[in-house]
Amino acid sequence: MRNFAYQRAGSVDAAVAAHSGQSSSFVAGGTTLLDLVKLDVMQPERIVDVRSLPLYDVERLDDGRLKVGAMVTNTDLAHHPIVTENYRVLSEALLAGASTSLRNKATTGGNVMQRVRCPYFRDGVSACNKREPGSGCAAIGGLNRSVHAVLGTSDQCIASHPSDMCVAMAAIGATVLVSGPNGEREIDFLDFHLLPGDSPDKEHALEADELITHVVLDAPMEGNRSHYLKLRDRASYQFALASSGVVIATEGGTIRDARIALGGVGTKPWRATEAEQSLIGKPANEASFQHAAELAFKEATAYEHNAFKIPLGQQAIVRSLTTVTA
Length: 326
Known about the structure:
Layout: E1 5-8, H1 12-19, E2 24-27, H2 33-38, E3 46-49, E4 58-60, E5 66-69, H3 74-79, H4 81-86, H5 88-95, H6 100-105, H7 108-112, H8 119-122, H9 138-141, H10 165-172, E6 174-180, E7 183-188, H11 189-192, E8 211-217, E9 225-231, E10 242-251, E11 254-263, E12 270-271, H12 273-279, H13 286-296, H14 309-325
Parallel strand pairs: 1-3, 2-3
Antiparallel strand pairs: 4-5, 5-8, 6-7, 6-8, 9-10, 10-11, 11-12
């Protein structure tokens, strides 16, 4: 175990100040950070504890949006009455993730920052451009079945993003509020996570000294129904092979509006905008859903062991849309 300094912050400004100037990491629930520190994948010189920050509220704003504090646990958010009533896709996604004990610790801000589960990233010795830029990607020629993507990949990295919560938030639409030395700013949720491209070590749009304070969910789509479907090797405590979060509104059997996001298949929470547009004005039937599913994966790139994710992801979309329009 490497030595590191520990500091507990009593305010957002104090947390940002403590994080500046050296290799540091914020810790809240610690469900990702502590694992990676023990594996020696992350090596912070200082850990700044933010559990005392007053970021535990869930608040409905005047414009209908929902402001969620970064310290709200996955359990509390999943069972919050506003979420269960207006954002069912988010509640279902949260309850599909991890175990009860982990959901009780994991936080909203930490889940947004969750890192990949690729074994080559986590073993500390394999070639991994995300962990050690320029070293290569062992996953491309290695075992790449379960936690590797078919959408948004590059010749530098093919690790899939692991979060269920983030898939639902991508479908709903959201804004990430951050605070740093230069003040506060907002980042559109769809722009927060970055594609690997030539720099897979750069995973998000957060600057080095910035802290997530809130995630603000868009106002609920009028008359919407939503659903999260997670397909995996076993029914509990397993990451998605493919998942689909959908939000849809219909009038007289015709689709008025639709949102589709995918998990387990993309290098970031994947919003299938072209598939969404193909549904608007179309009848809510299997033919429309199947066409949208095909569009969602038309740019997919399969690797040796994960080609099955393309038809599986298409099935996830069709099944989710069928469920919410039944």
